[in-house]
Design a protein that fits this description.
The chain is an alpha+beta fold and 225 residues long. Helices cover 31% and strands 16% of the residues.
């Protein structure tokens, strides 16, 4: 896929700051910090206590000069989950056109066609998600929730990203109960107080109304007889 961030660089920057905290076992419970370079989430960020997610905010750039020769156009069209790509002819050459209003910036098209890159110095950056976990004996699984929708790329040390993660973790250390995972703590105190305690700004983009068939799907390893 098309990475929006540098995985090794940002992981090094974050863990340089947090290594001693993990070494001294300061956290009330297990803390999983994961990273995925793009929305396709190969880093299992949807079920991590803190997730660093590379995101794009711009549609793919089209290299019409070489696209017809480098790409299987039907595959690029079929790869788009929103049907935003259609065949086109540009300056007499076979190419594609993108409906920017339907594009969700996932990068699937780039996987099939290297002439459709999304990486952009201004439009690509970092989002932070919080509170995910797999099921255990204490509580059911949880999906991570977006708490910081966008932080610009700031290599080589990504100071804004590191600072936001430290705010979240140190508020968690101060207030959580022993063995209470980060997401369980946030739900116990309420997400409104979570933003107050961490000092992170809240916007309307962070309201989560996605429920994933919670009322009908059995999602837990907790069996009750």
């Amino acid at each position: 896929h098309t990475p929006a961030i540098d995985a090794s660089g940002i992981v090094k920057a974050v863990m340089d700051e947090l290594y001693d905290d993990f070494q001294d076992m300061r956290f009330p419970a297990h803390v999983r910090i994961s990273l995925a370079c793009c929305l396709n989430m190969c880093g299992a960020v949807h079920c991590s206590d803190i997730a660093i997610l590379g995101i794009h905010r711009m549609p793919p750039m089209l290299d019409h000069e070489h696209l017809g020769n480098m790409c299987e156009i039907p595959l690029a069209i079929a790869a788009c989950p929103t049907g935003a790509i259609k065949p086109a002819t540009v300056d007499g050459k076979k190419s594609v056109a993108v409906n920017n209003e339907r594009c969700m910036f996932c990068g699937n098209c780039y996987t099939m066609c290297p002439s459709m890159p999304l990486a952009d110095e201004v439009g690509s950056g970092v989002a932070l998600l919080v509170g995910g976990k797999i099921s255990n004996r204490i509580s059911e699984p949880k999906f991570s929730k977006v708490v910081v929708p966008f932080i610009p790329n700031e290599p080589p040390r990504w100071p804004s990203t590191v600072d936001a993660i430290k705010k979240i973790l140190y508020a968690y250390v101060e207030d959580a109960k022993k063995y209470e995972r980060l997401g369980d703590w946030a739900e116990r105190i309420g997400w409104e107080r979570f933003f107050e305690k961490t000092g992170l700004p809240f916007t309307g983009h962070l309201i989560d109304d996605y429920r994933f068939a919670y009322t009908t799907w059995r999602q837990s390893t907790q069996f009750k007889f």
